[in-house]
Amino acid sequence: MTGVVALTAVLCLAQILTMLGVFAFPALLPTFFAEWHLSNTEAGWIAGIYFAGHSIAVPVLSSLTDRIDARRVYMVGAALAAVAAAGFAFFAEGFWSAMVFRLFAGMGLAGTYMPGLRALTDRCEGPGQTRAVAFYTACFSLATGLSFLMAGEVGRMFGWRAAFAVAAVATGLGLILVAVALSPLKPQQALVPTRLLDFRPVLRNRLAMGYILGYAAHIWELFGFRSWLVVFLVFALSFHDQGGWPSPTTVATIASLLAVATSIGGQELATRFGRRRVVSALMLASAVAAVGIGFTASLPYGWVVVLAVAYATLMHADSAALTTGTVLAAEPGRRGATLAMHSLCGFGAGFLGPLAIGVVLDLAGGTGSVFAWGLAFASLGVVVALGPLALFILGRK
């Protein structure tokens, strides 16, 4: 397939299909609280283990794209994700079985998200590349939004097992799409050959590491908030009648859809006004919003919805700009290893974010306390504020 637009469209659609199960568990968390009698910490473990699985597998799978075609890695990852979603649908019975299937599902994401980005950048060079990267990374938000919507609606009508079964089928369709639409390609070779999993050249690339650590702070905040957003909105709704406002899963979907535009817009601003300057300003604004959002739970539900959507949208504005910065800073032939480190640090933080929220909630009074929610989300602000510091220290040539 030729043409940057067509290639980007194919990989964005495949990303959406393979990610329909990513936030299925957080979207249905109130159901699992009731059915499996989970503690907040246990729920945080299940939500976070998905991203831990990603972090375990991504160093190998993404680094392999420096040696073999990313298309092949993508198909293996999609197959694993489909099997894991099907296993959850038919065999998950509680905390430990859920942990196993979500762990392998996260490994499947490691074989699709960054390898998909590598497949895209290997097939489009020049002026259109940064914009293609921005659209691909912005589609992550679209995919997560549709994941919330699909899981919430299918789960409501047919039960949570059906939601995971739909995710398994969609992931299989994404695998077929990539296999058919992308032609095989030999990856670019490194100027100086290195061993697989040798990340020392990446660690010495200060410019890339600045963006990588900034991305880790961003993902800690993003996945921490996303994993607990539905439960937070259910708590906020308990203070009032819903009054015609959308359900919590629908709110999460709306926030994700709006985030697509802000992610692309943030990348355009970064290109025009300076990447480190724009990203740092956006991250600091997001940190300020995080400190206050949890304490708003007792406000009228409509206000909580508006503020939560505004915060969730703001936190995405730096996403594409950070990933594009890493891509541009990568050395020739080491793009796969650089993206592996980018994803390892980012999704490793994505594992810790949801878990940290659960621990803070348990220590501060549980999900029925406004004060506990305030402290839990404020902890996200502390972490994301470290991103600009990393960019300042490391993000200079």
Bulk shape:
globular
Identify the quaternary structure here.
Answer: single chain
**CATH homologous superfamily title:** MFS general substrate transporter like domains
The biggest beta sheet, please? none
Q: Into how many domains do the coordinates divide?
A: 1
Poorly predicted sequence stretches spanning 5 or more consecutive residues: none
How do the strands and helices of this protein lay out in sequence?
Elements: H1 4-18, H2 24-27, H3 29-36, H4 40-63, H5 70-91, H6 95-110, H7 113-123, H8 128-158, H9 160-181, H10 200-203, H11 206-237, H12 248-273, H13 275-293, H14 301-314, H15 319-329, H16 335-364, H17 370-384, H18 386-394
Give an overview in words:
- The protein is an all-alpha fold and 397 residues long.
- It has a single domain, classed as Growth Hormone, Chain: A (Up-down Bundle), CATH 1.20.1250.
- It has helices at residues 4-18, 24-27, 29-36, 40-63, 70-91, 95-110, 113-123, 128-158, 160-181, 200-203, 206-237, 248-273, 275-293, 301-314, 319-329, 335-364, 370-384, 386-394.
- The radius of gyration is 20 Å and the shape is globular.
- The model has no long low-confidence stretch (mean pLDDT 88).
